[in-house]
Amino acid sequence: MRIHIEPKMRSPKMFFHRNYLILFALLQTFAVAAKTPDVLQVALLNRASNVTQFARLTADGQAERLPLERSLQTPLGSTWKLFMYAYAVDRKLPDPGYTCQGNDKEEVYCCSQKGERIDRDTALVRSCGLYFSPARLGIDAQTWRRYWQSKTIPAGLLELSAVAPATTVDVQALLQALKDLPAQQQARAALLDVLLDSDLITNLGGRLRVKTWSWYRNEDPKQRIGGFAGWLNDGSPLWAAGQGSSADILSKYSHALDSFLPVTTVQPGPDNCVEVNLFARYPINAVYDSHKRIPDSGILHGAYTLRFANGNTIDIKSAGDIILSRLQEKPLLRARLSREEYVARVLDREAAAAPLQAARALAITARSYLLQNAAHDGECLLVDDSSANQRVAPRPASESARAVAVWTADVVMAGEAVNYHLDTPGPNRLVWRDAVAQANSGMRFDAILRQAFPRNSLASWQRPASACEVLADAESWLKSRLPRWRELLDREPGYVETTLFSVCRLQAGHPHVDKNSRRIFVRSVLNQQDRLDITHEYLHLAFEAYPSGQDENYIEHLARRLLMEL
Known about the structure:
alpha+beta, 7-stranded mixed beta sheet, 6-stranded antiparallel beta sheet
């Protein structure tokens, strides 16, 4: 899997004319980072209080909290693309896409193969500078200035010519601009893919929505400064910088960032609200408040007791998020929740917030089930609270469950339909009992999910595309051959037969196997070469714990022998 990081830096002369003056200013303003090579600087603007926190993090998780120096500046790096993106989306400019022709070396940061066409969101995630060229998008300096004059933008960026990687801006001004940036909902939704397209999702979950950036240090292409700028999942802006490329920084400091970043709260809004028909399959006879009085229809506040038609009772609690109505004198309750509060309440009702990795796996599964099965009621999703769907706790979620939901915010499983159960196995099903055992044995949430849903991929709520287009015929062919190959292969040291794999369509490049996701990527099984490819890649999986699994000559020879003799 690859991280979408910044392109290798070209000569500053390719970006601006006053390169030496700007580079000198860059070195002066970034002196703090240059003196602290093992520290990541992080500035976080609290969206609610408008107060900025600043800290220096070490890779082992130590955090030195300091006031943010007003003089601290940063190069834009690829952050300039965020401003181009916001301008284009907010002004409703048509998305022209970008098709790679194979004649520009910078296209390596746009496409995976010649002829591929990408859209605006993908260009932002991959950091495709060719897409965002102002001339290509038809953006002129006068219109740019007129648009941004009434908005928050760092000093100097009113001039279109200054919107370039080497331009330096005040960190505080950049944070304020991100706080007020137009079209940031769309940008934040797209940028979740920066983590999803890498292994960083394992350490950071869905917490960061950031654009990575990199630039030179001391005019030496081998010395890099880099970081990221963007938002937390609640919209709080943040910026980070350190020594090395953005890929180095995110990898090195991911655990430290996970410990440092606050647990946020996502409020219900038109883009993330869920309405829940509470106790949909259990008729309610009466609702009483804490003084045994029958409340009027409307929004409920505080503690209440429900009596069902079967005589059972239950206590509930509303934080102004449950509405009481009546149909033919029978009480009905509907909760209006943010999507992440809904997931947290499902976690509280169906399982628990511990062990942590199992809870994260279930939270993603519950959110995926909601995406796949909920109906729409106006601007919100609508779902019944029932054992036939998902049960929802009739009270505010526990803090531990909220932390799990927010940590995994907007992350879903894309691909086939998902479901879960307490203790009964089934196809494409997460079994909570097994997930708990797996978590206790050291498995992380993504590995637990791969076991339960081998044909699905982690994806974002807004862009739930699977990384695996299943080749059912190829998978069936391979599994049908395993019994025929068993006698021969069992004689080979290190062979362990496995059926825990998926066969996916290869979109570009050479056939390969992703051992983490246990996915074999091939074109088809139409001809002998295709069958050799799939056999070869399967053997890499079957011998993954033995040295011969890394021996390409051995694997190729054995694959040919299987096809010729059996």
